[in-house]
Structure prediction request, 153 residues.
Amino acid sequence: MGYKNNTVDDNTLVEDYMTIRPVTMNFKNSVLDIAKKMLAENISSIAITDNEEEIVGILTERDIVKIIANELPPGGISAMSLMSFPTIKVKNNAPIEEAAKIMATKKVRHLIVENTYGEAVAGIITVSDLARYLKQKSGTGKLPSSEVWEIFF
Prediction:
């Protein structure tokens, strides 16, 4: 898992801040196994795949909190029954402000990033990535559009 680059200019794109090669697990895995993987990788979401390794959903920390809060056994619940699907996507060459706007509008904190030239998954972008963008952008003295700030309030 890695980042493409961290450039900050007026043309900052989703691909500049997305995580390349997101961590994935199969839809048959238990929520407990997924939570352990998230802890080991220090990540807030896992992209869920089908048997052909295509991403079909996403499971987040918030989803796991719901299971725990309802006192359900995470070892007995599959990712398929808890994951969010279909995934909400953004193109890799979209302005980063578009990703922020989608997150704010859809009330999500993770987006699957699609390759511009097809349906292939290029990565994932999260609110943590947007926070990193904001931190670097604030150092330049240029404030990003209001859509980026909106998801934090």
Summary: The first helix runs from residue 31 to 41.
